[in-house]
Design brief:
Length: 268
């Protein structure tokens, strides 16, 4: 049998693309090295309870079209994420709220007091650098959130995730307004796939918007290589162009795949 698409991996992206492609009367073959569908969001039933085999995954969206789409496949359960961090017997609410700050600093009772405490510790960390830029993630984090939050709620979890000391991780500023290089490249490819699979012109418009913004802001105008980390307004958040996270994979892959996809689309 001949297929229109071969999809490697049946995780969230692969399964969604296969589903939409089949709705567009395309023939799809999905392969996966695991014995189940769903990738890391796979659930297995244990005594009538759906258990997240690879850890909890929580779905958020404010896009009505996306919400209607996912609910057309399965009914979603209402869930509020209320984790608690245990630091040497001290319990802290996460994400941060006033309970977190009051537990950490009993004299703090208002957002303004919490911000003042954080600013005080941030200033200490900046002063300790003596005017130079942070050389590693620990120094950067201390400048962003101060010593108490970093050492109690960030350091050990981060080192567990990456398998190395924070002093040996690069000083990327992972702010909430950040734009990363790799989601941009994946979005450029994904919008072309979506148009090829559905023929819907809105995906071409999305592709143009993402491509125009990405190529206008990510490449270094002097040297050509892409920055890895921008703020949402397009300014450079961190000047690194290569580190243990950003290697020579996503950008050339995007360029090559986009070129071949455009050739395939134009031949139709």
């Amino acid at each position: 049998m001949k297929y229109d698409y071969l999809i490697v991996g049946s995780g969230l992206y692969g399964a969604t693309f296969a589903h939409k492609a089949r709705q567009a009367d395309k023939k799809v073959l999905v392969i996966d090295k695991r014995s189940h569908l769903g990738g890391n969001i796979y659930c297995e039933e244990i005594e009538g309870i759906n258990v997240h085999k690879y850890g909890a995954h929580i779905f958020h969206t404010n896009n009505k079209e996306v919400w209607n789409f996912v609910n057309s496949i399965v009914e979603f359960n209402r869930y509020t994420n209320c984790p608690v961090a245990n630091y040497k017997g001290e319990l802290y609410n996460l994400p941060f709220n006033m309970n977190t700050f009051n537990r950490m600093w009993p004299e703090v009772h208002t957002p303004a007091q919490a911000q003042a405490k954080i600013n005080e510790q941030k200033a200490e960390a900046v002063a300790a650098l003596g005017g130079r830029e942070p050389h590693n993630l620990e120094e950067q984090a201390l400048c962003l959130v101060g010593k108490d939050i970093f050492y109690k709620l960030i350091k050990e979890y981060t080192e567990k995730q990456w398998g190395r000391d924070c002093k040996n991780l690069p000083p990327q500023d992972y702010s909430q307004d950040m734009k990363f290089w790799w989601p941009q490249t994946e979005a450029i490819i994904a919008t072309l796939y979506a148009y090829q699979a559905t023929g819907n012109e809105k995906y071409l418009e999305m592709h143009k918007q993402i491509s125009d913004w990405t190529y206008a802001h990510f490449p270094d105008k002097e040297y050509g290589e892409w920055y890895g980390y921008l703020h949402r307004d397009g300014t450079v958040a961190q000047p690194a162009k290569g580190n243990i996270f950003k290697g020579p994979f996503h950008i050339p892959r995007m360029m090559i795949r986009s070129y071949t996809l455009c050739e395939e689309i134009m031949k139709k």
